[in-house]
Design goal:
It comes from Aquimarina intermedia. The protein is of the alpha+beta class and 483 residues long. It contains ten helices and eight strands. The strands form three sheets. Strands 1-2-3-8 form a four-stranded antiparallel beta sheet. The chain has a two-stranded antiparallel ribbon with strand order 4-7. A two-stranded antiparallel sheet has the order 5-6. The protein is elongated and about 175 Å long.
Amino acid sequence: MKIKLLILCCGVLGLFASQAQEKQWTLRECVEYALENNITIKQSELNAAAADIEKSDAIGNFLPSLNASASNTWRSGLATDPITNVNSTQTFRTSSYGVNVGVTLFDGLRNIYQLQRAKINSVLSQYNLGKSKDDIALFVANSYLQVLLNKESLKVIEKQHEITLEQLKRTTDLVDAGVLPQGDLLEIQATSADELTRIVQAENAVLIARVSLAQTLLIKDYENFDIAEQEYLVPSAEILNKSIEEIRSTARESRYEVQIAEQNKILAEKDLQIARGAYYPTLNGSFNYGTSEVGNNTFSSGGIDPDNPVTTEEIGFVGSTGESVFSSRPNLLLVESGPTPFIEQLYLNDGISYGFSLSVPIFNGFAARNNVKRSKINVERTAFQFEQAALDLDSNVYQAYLDAKGAAEAFEASQVAVNAQERAYEYAKDRYDVGLTNAFDFSQSKFRLENAQSNAVQAKFDYIFKIKVLELYFGIKLADIKL
């Protein structure tokens, strides 16, 4: 029972392992996966999101500010009653409430320039994101083609080794029959051993290229990662029929390098306008509504005191006679009652204020002037960077054009070389079969054929990559390029 259970577990694990190994990645899958998971692209996406927030901030600068306030305070000792304005020693509670509205009416047009700058920066962040995607996609494509190249090179060596093994078997029979000398057999055996060494080296190259591509994709399962086995045909060279001027003109309109430099230049010009806005006055408007409430008791008149209805006081005297002058007033009783109702106090004690404030810059330690000077320098710097970006793009397009043409010619030449070496190999094989040449000359002929085939594989994938680079400069996105 335990043995059956063990066999079942091994079978399940084997099924999972086979399913994991069945996954083979196409170039499009690798590019799409990299665009979704690459850290650099994620950072560019965060920068784009931050630029959108900055644009929202700039829009908010045009809107009024609205703030509410509330306070509740207890006072003890000699204090002024905020309602009766009478000083007395007591403990009482007060509360106040208010609403403030403020708006910037004029600030040297800096709010307008800030909004324009935020919009430009948002576009710039999208260009940076697009450039990051193009760079990653091109890097992934190059790594993918390197895996293909190493695999094709391994196939060439393995195919030649199969031929060597057949030749080794035939030579052994001929040596045993006394037709060929022992030296020929030793030469074939040495060739076989050398090919085995190069097969191991080629297998390591394939493994290293696969690991490198997996690391680029942030895939940690290196052992089970592999690319799809499919035939990649040589692309057409239609783009080489276009003039260099046409490709360069299209590149200037579509490539992110120049667009990024241009947006940086416009951004610097906006920064200069914002810095100059500090020379102008700032005009703000405000509106305030406030009210208050007191929690201490109130006093009201309770009528004339029946026991002492009149109070008489001496208020002076007659100068000529010295006779005193008296004044009488009703003696009123004061009745203490609770505080005025809360809601009633709010509308009895409320009030509003509104007005404008003007701030005129006169002297700020050369801060505004120096900011303007720095902004002018930055404008000139970004103008040079824009010019340099255009020159670099022209140079890169011209170099890519020449590289593609050179790769096309090298690929055609490699095909001619392979055809010639194949005929030379067949001729050497026929001569070796009838004993007209020795094993060393035959091995050299086979080595030259293998070298020509390896060079042809290298030239093929180099040509594919160079053509795709040139197509990218022509405005064809990597996602639309078919390999």
